[in-house]
Please model this.
Amino acid sequence: MTNRQKLIAAILLFLGVFSLGVAGFKYFGGPEATLLDSIYMTAITISTIGYGEAIDLRHNPTARVFTIFFIILSLGSIAFAVSSITAFIVEGELKDIIRRRKMDKEISRLKDHYIVCGSDETAQTVIQELLLTRRKFVVIEPSREKLEKLQSLGHFPYIEGEPSEDEILLKAGIKQARGILLSLPSDELNLYVTLTARSLNPRLRIVSKGIDLKSHAKMKKAGADSVISPTFIGGMRMVSEMIRPSVTTFLDMMLRDKEKVLRVEEVTVKADSKLVGQTLQESRLKERSDILLVAIKKAASGEYQFNPPGDYVITAGDVLIFIGSPEAVQNLEKITA
Model:
């Protein structure tokens, strides 16, 4: 029996003992004893305070025998209740409940956030990157033990539950989320959660891990926007280390430097942004010291303009691709919004 179950049992036992006392004193007190008198007698007997008796039991031996056994029963139930409450508080379950409620409130306020499903090495890398780049996210994992290990990566909200369940995904705020990242133990689970997530939020961006390359097409048909193969990425990294080692070293410095976090980021220009209609030279984006504009994905054609010239006219829906810090991303989002 867990401490929480013991606490519930102690409360129920106390209520049962109290009800027994009220019924007993009402019975032995006769018609003259009111319900309030019986409650009063029960309260002073259980608490062993010993105020004056509201029901006279001096000439009723049977009632006195009942009172003796009731006192012994009361002391036992109080001792059990005190030990259960102490264990509940000392062993941290009350603290966990308070922390869980606080976290649930934090999750309910999330908007335009990301949902991470899983706790394997891939998921851990995802979590570390989201923490470093200061993104809002919530983790879903059914194993409490694995969730506790993930907490060593940093503070973030999480939900203990199956990511394949609609209720859990809704609790994670999937309808308000920007995207979901799936790194579950099997392709079948990733495929099932992809179907579920897409049905709950048709606008959601879904990125899933695909262990078997043959499963990628099925996942995309199910609604995944992108499917990532760890083996393919690993192979590409190995050959990059061989033929372009300086580039991989530079990228590693960007990814692993925790003091100065730099990433290749993207920001979409909104329709009501003040940048719309301006040239890059007029916007002075290329002159900013906190970002390095690398390319623009054109809204009209979807083509990429690498190292765009100063006379390029910015339009609504253009995606600016640049190298910058999390702070630079936030500043640029304010301008493009």
